[in-house]
Amino acid sequence: MAALGWLTPRRRSATARSVLAGEAAAEAARKSSLQLEQEREESAATETELSEPEFPVVGDVRAAAFFDLDNTVMQGAAIFHFGRGLYKRKFFQRRELARFAWQQAWFRLAGVEDPDHMQDARDSALSIVKGHRVSELMSIGEEIYDEYMADRIWPGTRGLAQAHLDAGQKVWLVTAAPVETATIIARRLGLTGALGTVAESVDGVYTGKLVGEPLHGPAKAEAVRALATAEGLDLGRCAAYSDSHNDIPMLSLVGHPYAINPDTKLRKHARDRDWRLRDYRTGRKAAKVGIPAAAGLGALAGGTAAAVALHRRRH
């Protein structure tokens, strides 16, 4: 039997048993650590898939952002503010200012763009600038921006535009406002440029006519498509921002549409299509919650009274 003693496990010393236990614990810890690390990596990967990817994508030069102007980037309509500035400089009389005041009051209360109102405003502006030099209106436009527009920029929308700029992307305004006015606003905000309605000029003097039609509705989408082709952009990677259902053609053109301070129709359309929404107003537009008719008349009266007071002070 002594010859088989080697088959019987020898009793290890306490020290040896401690070493064995320590080694076993270390090996188990290493394996469990690797397993936990793998589980964490799998969990992180799952969270990344479920969470919204980083946007805008830094360095994606084939992407750009297109922003509507009126009530998206700026409170109110640029052309109405421009009209106030021209009246101040005696480009037209009190009757025309009263019409501008009514149009602006309606726009602010309704919160939507009515083609008839906008067309009337553009016709008024064209008749007013006819015969004036483009350089003169550009210079005046700079002053009007400081007087009436600078403090009406929505900070939230401005931040969205800056995010695209910080990502190395170009940012364009797309508006029915005159391209000269839009270009001034884009430059002041540090944006790339602007697409706007082009008024005809000959030898640097306005003729009172448009080149084509106002940049409104479907025309905006065509302008964005043309610019994207010229710039080599991938519209599926681009973003567009607007408050108006009139801009649904432009919003539908890009891969990242945003409804900003949306009117009722755009809000519904955006929700139906799971578009992103942002509302930077302090509250819902009064017209959306049933503003009394008297309040609407009060706004009009206030605007007209202001116009009359300004006229009297100037005379």
Key phrases:
315 residues; alpha/beta; two-stranded antiparallel ribbon; 11 helices; 8 strands; disordered C terminus
Helix and strand succession? Answer: HEHHHHHEHEEEHEHEHEH
Determine the strand fraction and express it as a percent band: 5-15%
Number of helices: 11
Q: For the largest beta sheet, what order do the strands appear in spatially? A: 3-2-1-6-7-8
Largest beta-sheet details: 6 strands, parallel
Task: Give average pLDDT, whole number.
Answer: 78
Q: What integer value in Å does the Rg equal?
A: 31 Å
How would you describe the shape?
A: elongated
Structural class, by secondary structure, is: alpha/beta
Q: Helix fraction?
A: 40-55%
Provide a quick synopsis of the model.
This protein is α/β, with parallel strands linked by helices and 315 residues long.
What does this structure look like?
The chain is α/β, with parallel strands linked by helices. 54% of the residues lie in helices and 13% in strands. The chain has 11 helices and 8 strands. It has a 6-stranded parallel β-sheet, sandwiched between helices. A two-stranded antiparallel ribbon has the order 4-5. Helix 2 packs antiparallel against helix 3 (94-110), helix 2 packs across helix 5 (134-149) and helix 5 crosses helix 7 (179-188). It is elongated, with a radius of gyration of 31 Å. It starts with 13 loop residues before the first helix and ends with a helix.
